Amino acid sequence: MDELHTDSFSLLPHYDYIYKTDPVYKKFRKLITKNYGLASLFGSLFIIIFLYPLWNHLIFKYSPKFKSLKKLFKYKLFNIIFFWSLFSLLLCFPQTYNDMSFLTKRFGRVSASLLPTLLFLSIRPSPLPETLYLALLPIHKWLGRIIVLLAIFHTHTYCALYFHLNKFNKIYKLENLYGWFALLGFLSITLSSLPIIRRKYFKFFYINHYIWTWIIVVLINLHSRPSANLLTFLNIAILTYQIYHRLIHSIKVNIQSFNLSSNLKIVKIYKDDQNLSNFFQSNLPGSHLRMMRYYKNPFKNLFFRFITPLAHPYTIASLPTDNSIILIIRNSKFELNNNYQYYITGSYDPDFHFLKYTDNNNNNKFIDKISNKLSRSNQNNKNNKNQRYKNIISFCENYESSASRVLMVVGGSGISFALPLLRVLSIKGIECKIIYVIKDVKDLRIFRFFNLIDLNSIEVYITGKNFQETDFSKLNIDDFDDDQPDKDFNHLENQEQISYLSGSLTGVDFNNYGSINDLETNNDYQEFDYTFFEPNTTATATTANNNTNIANKNWNLKSPRLNKEIHENSITSSIAESPSSSMLRRIISIDEQDSEVGMKMMDIMKRLKIYKGRPVLGEQEYNWCIETTCTGPIFNSNGTICCREAINNDENNVKLNKFENCWVIGVGPPGLVEKTKVWARDCGFQFHEESFSV
């Protein structure tokens, strides 16, 4: 045993192809291998369960004060790969005694010991505090790939060891065959998870992923020496818990699906009819559910519900207090038919750092004032609408928010995340602005369904090739008819855009931020609304000034800061109202002679701020976020002065809290989210992302 006490670790060790059969030596090797397996298991779980939430809390708390910490966000993917690779290697090489048999077994044991942590990261919802399971997907993905690499090293080094010892026939032993099949499963999952395959054949990727996971768990237990009963128990416990959670948190529902345009549709699920009020609980706006098809065939239903639960995530566009669940969905091969039934699971609340829900039922004077005003304006519906408005406003008062302003950049069906958040923040008196990118002008019908929302907070950018500048007063009702979804808008006329008033800004080069490219087609079974936005590095900030304002010649970018009194007087039923089913059916079935609906749609179009082209985040958005846009003359003791002069005289006009309390939100595909994140981080604003990408 003296030879075992040589130098136990070196950066570039030389390994001898030896395989001693001495019982004491073998027992010692097994003990070392088992100990490092346990270190891998409990060390990785400790990092995920305790250190990861603590790290996120500290980064969020101190990054606004220490700009150097913000650079960590720019290299998040690199940090994940580097950390977990280093963690794995540090567990593989110590105490190998330059013996290839030690290293070979260590590769396999560490790989198997990290599997429970990998499965823990896939639990929905995440058991970690204030953590959305979607935020753990990058760690899950790259830790899984590291596990596969370790399994490949384990197999390769064992084959090399047997070859040098002239014992290559040992690879055909039954226990080793189990390992070969487990490696085959790892490789199958890895190859199907490559973006080029996953995006095109997402259903295959999903089913392949789940089936092989169960098989690998069993095969590793049969292959491992020493035994891996603890690992197998944890793996099966996690997988069984996921099935149990889907069983008790899923409910079968009927839906009402309404085609909005060739791109979007609206799905409505009534709570009262299906007892969803008590079952389906969500406290935060922007939460999402997961939906899967119900099959009458019991075997098919068992397979797709429990073994391979191919569930599609959809953001809830309504509030928890609404009478129904509203979903805004991009059309895909996943059929949403009124004649089918579906399982829904959830809800899954987003992880907002600036918005928290506190169950406080005490209504303050602000609620009573608004409710009294609503009561006077809704005498004909005193017993239902007024009570609903009061409930919504009372419910929203249970939120606590640290944000002063919120800028949301969304695209396509991502508007379903922004609308409920806008409703809540508006009631809380927080300034909001939405930049909404769509491809088809007919997608603007969505604002007819939520026509009572304050449209002055929304800017629309239409990127479709067939769309041209227009005077919306010249549009016909037929232009929004569902029977003509592909009708071009080549008859529309051009208008000139009015330039904006904007302040100066130093320290940020906005020429580095390109525009957001056109929307692409939706991928049928992708985990996210695959409507790609890609950066355009050649675009400059002047692109925004070349866009065409096609809604109104007299509006500008200013967003006046309202004090509490003004806000209270401006809150009406418009913010609290949710679209009714009759409204949906009426709008969807637009008839040429239905002039009333057509005129209402025209009115909405005129109130929106609509541009042709792609948005560029730049100086105007920056000024809005720090509240330095022009708001008109200001009255003081010296008379009337320009608002910009008042800003220049204020030595603290851009305080730290303006950056800490201003939030930028990116919703949608990775390209859109990443582009918005880079701009927000470089400007010094807080950032929140919402993406279903895998």
TrEMBL record:
Protein's membrane topology: Multi-pass membrane protein
Location within or outside the cell: Membrane
Record's GO cellular component terms: plasma membrane
Alphabetical list of InterPro entries matching this protein: Fe3_Rdtase_TM_dom, RBOH/FRE
Transmembrane annotation, as ranges: 36-55, 75-94, 143-165, 177-197
GO biological process: reductive iron assimilation
Top-level taxon of the source organism: Eukaryota
GO molecular function: ferric-chelate reductase activity
Domain Ferric oxidoreductase: 107-219
Name of this chain's protein: Ferric oxidoreductase domain-containing protein
Organism from which the protein derives: Ascoidea rubescens DSM 1968
Assigned keywords, A-Z: Electron transport, FAD, Flavoprotein, Ion transport, Membrane, Oxidoreductase, Transmembrane, Transmembrane helix, Transport
Keyword Ribonucleoprotein: no
